[in-house]
Amino acid sequence: MFDIVRITIKGIFRDRVFHGILMAALLLPLVPSVSQLSMRQVTELSITLSLSLISFILLLLAVFLGGTSLWKDMERRYTFSVLSLPITRSTYLLGRFLGVALFLLITAVVLGGVACVVVLVVSGNYPPDRPVVWDNIYLCVLFDALKYILLLAVAVLFSTVSTSFFLPIFGTISAFLVGSASQQVYDYVHSPAGQLVSPAVRSAATALYYVLPNFSAFDLKVNAIYGVPLTAAGLALTVGYLVIYAAVLLAIASAIFQKREMK
Questions:
Q1: Rounded Cα–Cα distance for residues 64 and 69 (Å)
Q2: Domain ranges within the chain, ordered by starting residue
Q3: What does the alpha-carbon distance between residue 164 and residue 5 come to, in Å, rounded to a whole number?
Q4: pTM score above 0.70
Q5: How far is CA 250 from each of CA 1, 37, 41, 73, rounded to the nearest angstrom?
Q6: DSSP letters of 248-262?
Q7: Cβ 179 vs Cβ 214: under 8 Å
């Protein structure tokens, strides 16, 4: 499995999709100049822009690398040669997932380091009204990476049931959009204002809330920008949610991949 993880990471560095997405990271050094457009909250704006750009880059990587890696292997007949070795399909699939997941973590660490330098420069030139809580920024970047690792598991699941890259790409994007808004929809339909909604819509919203991954639970940008305190119990619960949900998705993906015919 470790060889598959290593080969996956090496392949990503050679992938033209990765090279294209990497160009977006070149916008990070421009954040100090753009942040000066805010007359009062320059530091807060720099944190917002930096974290949002990192989140966007990780989203693209999770969707395109997770949604196309398995499809590319099958198109190039690489899967057939690998599966002829004494390894199981589950091992191959898990190795692919872990390789991309590790790459997402490495990318988050590198971009997070650049973002911290950007925020440090901006906060030195434009001291904020409230101190920068660096631990919240570190945790925000880390949990953003964990969020997209969960999205990666969704992409891997779609890849095992599709013979093209359309379903993995667009299915993963759709799952991300719905999963990011499910918490707000759930809160609304169960609020006093949401009682006007029909019971059928309320039941459907509740079902989607429990079935689809809740990506908003990993969003700590407000805590990072305004220094809102975080609780260890809440963070641990979110990590536990990631582990259980990703394990279920990978188990389903592995079961489907075991029965898939290779043509």
A1: 8
A2: 2-259
A3: 23
A4: yes
A5: 15, 45, 43, 18
A6: HHHHHHHHHHHHPPP
A7: yes
